[in-house]
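Here comes just one.
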Amino acid sequence: MGSNEDIMHDFVKKELKRLYPSVDGWQIKTAPGTGAGAGFTISRRILGRIEGAYVLVNFDRKVTDKAVKALQELAARSPIPGVRNPRLIIMAPQGAETAGLPPGIEVLSMQSFGYEGKELVWLKRRAQVSEKVPPRSS
């Protein structure tokens, strides 16, 4: 039986597959040494060149220097063959604080999770619940 964190990372991987589909040549791999789903490498070969990126998943309310350092370490220890300048991406819930990140670090907002105040919520579940609840009549 998996933990909540495993399930959350499964949703993140589904989002990555939607953003980087295999039909367009993208390959998504769990990065070694990052735990179950905490980091990914994505790459593809297109028009004779190879594109790639490192993605670090962060569910914290604020993206810290520690997360940036973990992403940079991931890139340093797991080079993507043929990619000279891979993109560095932190995937964070909607509403997470991402101000102050160094240049060259991109942020992808999750579609499945976000912060409402200080609480991390599953956004897809909220949307499904609100669709099923009939409107109140006055």
Summary: The first helix runs from residue 4 to 19. The two ends are 45 Å apart (CA to CA). Confidence is low (pLDDT under 50) at residues 128-133.
